[in-house]
Amino acid sequence: MFINIEKSKDKTKNYEILLNNVDFYLVKEDSLVTNLANLSAYLNYFLTDVNWVGFYLLEGNLLRLGPFQGLPACTRIKLGEGVCGKSANERKSIVVDDVNKFPSHISCDSESNSEIVIPIVKNDKLIGVLDIDSTTFSRFDNTDKSHLEKLINKLVDIL
């Protein structure tokens, strides 16, 4: 089912709309890939000033590219490397104001300047990470972090 959702110009309001309607796009009976594909498209629609929104899923000791919106990306990331690998390893969200200053940053898109990564963990088991990039420096803040963590919790609830 698709619903027509009007976006706001206010970031916090957009997150509230997004969170209030995400259940239409997260369906327990659908596969993980289907839910992540819809979620990446949904986030790409609602978030302003982003150039990549997607998921990396844990396979062994690697994060492998999952559903995404944006330019082609790195297909494998070792745990502990780059922002995604560090977030996965530490199982904590990471906001990076300037990716060029982040040790071991992996540049898939040279236009990206800031990034936020939210780990996906269920019952202490790492599933993967949500990765969002922007061409704008310092694009992401605690508002993004807290709302995206709530969104990932909704995803985890249906897994």
Keywords:
Beta-Lactamase, six-stranded antiparallel sheet, 159 residues, alpha+beta
Provide structural commentary.
This protein is an alpha+beta fold and 159 residues long. It is 33% helix and 26% strand. The chain has one domain: Beta-Lactamase (2-Layer Sandwich). The chain has a 6-stranded antiparallel beta sheet, with helices on both faces. A hairpin with a 5-residue loop joins β2 and β3. α1 packs parallel to α4. It is globular. The mean pLDDT is 93.
Quick description:
This protein is of the alpha+beta class.
Spell out the blueprint of helices and strands.
Blueprint: H1 11-21, H2 32-46, E1 52-59, E2 62-70, E3 76-78, H3 82-90, E4 94-96, E5 114-122, E6 125-134, H4 142-158
Antiparallel strand pairs: 1-2, 1-6, 2-3, 4-5, 5-6
CATH superfamily: GAF domain
Residue stretches low in confidence (pLDDT < 50, at least 5 long) are: none
> How many helical elements?
4
Write the CATH fold name: Beta-Lactamase
Outline type: globular
